Amino acid sequence: MKKGYFITFEGGEACGKSTQIKMLREYLSKRDNSDDFLFVREPGGTPLAEEIRKLLLNYEVDKPLPMTELLLFCASRVENVYKQILPALNNGKIVIADRFYDSTIAYQGNARGIMSSKDILSLTKKIIGGLTPNLTFYLKISPEEAFKRKSKMDEGMDRIEKEGLLFHQKVKEGYDFISNLEKDRFYILDATKSPQEIFDEIINVLKVKIPEYFTEEKSLDEKNF
How far apart are the C-alpha atoms of 213 and 34, rounded to whole Å? Predict the structure, then answer.
């Protein structure tokens, strides 16, 4: 059985992360080994975690306190890890996550100042064990450029996206900190490039990192004989 591999996508608002994950999902869905890949997201992933997501991103009546926000993200992560991510990894699948604990370090740690990055990592290890992404794609963009992009989008903003420029500058600083601290697993992408340029770079990296999952597929004629 192939060994599982855990990939995460990280970045601030409007970095193009969701676009790249969508492109990757569509690309992989056309391959013969599409069942080898599982896509998950944070917060969310399981029915309970999706309810937590609604509270975190859209609950405006009584906004959660900063510590409540942190613990809700952790609760969603526990559900996702033990019900989806670990079972898939143990079955040799490639798990691709839209955010993981690096987001908590950047948003709740550096931007909100609830806990230090060290304390958030310690808390994370206590609740999910030693699970760490094998590879993290960090789509890096300045908050100023991200705000320009967001202003051109028709979709509404969630509670966290509505935070001001200073908050999102601190988010970027948090990502820069953790990506510099754990260079071995981070691959930094210039999010100002075109979506296709970024996607091509991602595919090239994956072919190097996990070549056994990206062997060239047989042609139609070869499959018939």
Answer: 10
Q: What is the enclosing helix (H) or strand (E) of 96?
A: strand 94-98
DSSP 217: P
Contact (CB, 8 A) for 12 and 168: yes
Distances in Å between the Cα of 109 and the Cα atoms of 48, 52, 73, 164, 187 are 24, 19, 12, 16, 21
**pLDDT for 103-127, tens place per residue?**
999 999 999 999 998 899 899 999 9
Counting every residue written for the chain, the total comes to 225
Query: Letter for the amino acid at 122?
Result: S
Least confident of 12-16, 73-77, 110-114, 158-162: 158-162
Q: Which residues contact 171 (CB under 8 A, 6 or more apart)?
A: 12, 13, 106, 107, 110, 111, 143
Q: Which domain holds residue 120?
A: 5-223
Percent composition of the chain: helix, strand, coil (DSSP 3-state, to 5): 55, 10, 35
Q: How many whole angstroms separate alpha carbon 40 and alpha carbon 45?
A: 6
Question: Are 150 and 22 within 8 A, CB to CB?
Answer: no
Torsion region of 16: left, alpha or beta (phi above 0 gives left; psi -120 to 50 gives alpha): left
What CATH number should be reported for the domain holding residue 108?
3.40.50.300
Q: What is the tally of structural domains in the chain? A: 1
